[in-house]
Design brief:
Blueprint: H1 6-31, H2 47-54, E1 58-62, H3 64-79, E2 87-89, H4 97-104, E3 108-112, H5 119-131, E4 140-143, H6 156-173, E5 178-179, E6 181-182, H7 192-199, H8 208-225, E7 231-232, H9 234-239, E8 245-247, E9 250-252, H10 268-284
Parallel strand pairs: 1-3, 1-4, 2-3, 4-5, 6-7
Antiparallel strand pairs: 8-9
Length: about 290
């Protein structure tokens, strides 16, 4: 039997110790949270705000997170025991006579616009939506992007410029409509599975670098439109209770994990939180008020 020398045993012990420490550090990195995710207390609209918003004709261009928000609208009204506004889906390049009849009887008209990951297509679709029969006699109109529309690879300045151009265009063409502005939604901190996938090169575009890009876009939106009093700050509502994050010298914010079921879309609490902010803004700028 070969005898193992003392130095070899010592070296093996050192490497075993290094391995244990490395595994422990890797585990801690995978499991750690970069910041807080506190429970959120939703600031519900008052009954009078809900009544005003419910009588206001709203046109809302969106995609899947927007549907979460509309579900939240229904929940906010139910919680307050106030009748919810009638909703009508006016999606599609052409609105049929039946759809238009439904739309005319609804105070909350909404449509899926554009293609995810192509924000410029959403801007063009929103302009067409406002010009279509669905935009007839509306009081308030807005559109929102999805978190997938702004990522680390996005030309943020170009998207912002296109948004400003679109809003300028629709406001000039429809001076009687009160247009609201929106920030882009965020994604929640990565869990350990997402971190492993990202480390292996399978980026889900829901990491810190992507939220940094979203914060750049949102900062420009806030600077441009914050003083108008017509900014629905979706990102701020989503980030409530999380605090500021930082990476490589850049600060960013995240979607509170208590407001989402998949790190991007909103659960019931998240839907209600954003819907509450939207309804308060609609009530503030409604001609009914």
């Amino acid at each position: 039997m070969t005898k193992v020398s003392g130095p070899v045993k010592l070296l093996a012990g050192v490497w075993a110790g290094v391995l244990v420490v490395t595994v422990a550090l890797a585990g801690a990195w995978l499991l750690r949270s970069p910041g807080m995710n506190e429970q959120v207390a939703i600031a519900e609209p008052s009954e009078s705000e809900l009544q005003v918003a419910g009588q206001t004709k709203v046109l809302f261009g969106h995609n899947s997170v927007g549907m979460n928000i509309l579900d939240g609208v229904t929940k906010v009204y139910a919680d307050a025991s106030v009748p919810a506004p009638a909703m009508a889906d006016v999606s599609g390049p052409e609105i049929s006579g039946a759809s238009m009849t439904d739309a005319e009887g609804a105070t909350m008209r909404h449509a899926y616009i554009g293609v995810n990951e192509d924000p410029l297509s959403k801007f063009a679709a929103f302009a067409e939506l406002v010009d279509s029969p669905a935009g007839k006699d509306v009081d308030v109109a807005l559109m929102k992007l999805c978190y997938v529309d702004i990522t680390a690879s996005t030309d943020v300045q170009a998207v912002f410029d296109a948004y400003v151009s679109t809003m300028d265009e629709v406001e000039a063409a429809h001076p009687d409509v009160r247009f609201l502005y929106t920030t882009v939604p965020l994604t929640a901190d990565r869990n350990w599975k997402s971190k492993v996938k990202a480390a292996l090169g399978r980026d889900d575009e829901m990491g810190p670098a992507d939220n940094i890009a979203r914060e750049r876009y949102n900062a420009m939106i806030r600077e441009k439109y914050g003083a108008t009093g017509r900014l629905v700050d979706i990102a701020a509502a989503e980030a409530d209770g999380t605090g500021e994050r930082s990476q490589d010298g850049s600060t960013y914010y995240v979607l509170n994990k208590n407001l989402t079921f998949d790190r991007g879309h909103l659960n019931e609490a998240g839907s209600e939180a954003v819907a509450a902010e939207l309804l308060k803004m609609v009530a503030t700028h409604s001609p009914v008020a």
